[in-house]
Amino acid sequence: MADLLRKPNGTHGKVHDITAESAGWGYVGFGLYRLEPGESASEATGDREVILVLVEGKAKIFGAGQDFGEMGERMNVFEKTPPHCLYLPGGVEWRAEATTACTLAVCTAPAQGSYPARKLGPEGISMLPRGTGANTRFINNIAMEGRDVAGSLLVTEVFTPQGNWSSYPSHRHDEDDFPRMTYLEETYYHRLNPAQGFAVQRVYTEDGALDETMAVKNHDVVLVPKGHHPCGTPYGYDLYYLNVMAGPIRKWRFANDPDHDWIYKRDNPTA
Description:
mainly beta; Jelly Rolls; seven-stranded antiparallel β-sheet; single chain
């Protein structure tokens, strides 16, 4: 069985520490801190670029020799307001001091190009709908390719209402063949509302060599090294996830599962 479902290491401190090496791939890293007021976290970026996402709560952020002040606004991720985020290049250090209970995501990928440390949100982030019917979800594009703010990282938030599906129709981005498709590794950091809920994520290849279906719970992370990766949430539970993607080039090009592509074509007749 593939080791794709990563459970948090406790409920306090650094509860996820997924490196490219521990994931068994070459690009994406994901860390998550859960801090109480007055606690701090600090790291050096080394040869990687970083996007810090204040998933919820507030913290004073220092990075790349700059004081960015107190960042964060939403106290619960399901307020669905735009997140406060900070980009940091390679070769610098950062430190976060929690001023409230906070959840801080650390999204990393190889540093490429020359991009300055800068705030990425909430300014410049607007929630957008995607899909239709029971495939409707809502997107906060933190750092997708339309924003030239990073060399490798692609980062976005998705809110999926109860009973709906997301990352659907099933699609993959596991071949380095631009412009037809790009190779992008991906992590999903999941949250449920109410917190005791669960959602379902499947990761599979068309030839069946990889086919894992996982029940994900609050604060779980799913790794997507290849293949299709839809997820759904049952009635009564809203789903949030934070996506981190990276690969050889910072472009998002994918292909739908041929078995389910008819759904996309039906819903997008002019595409």
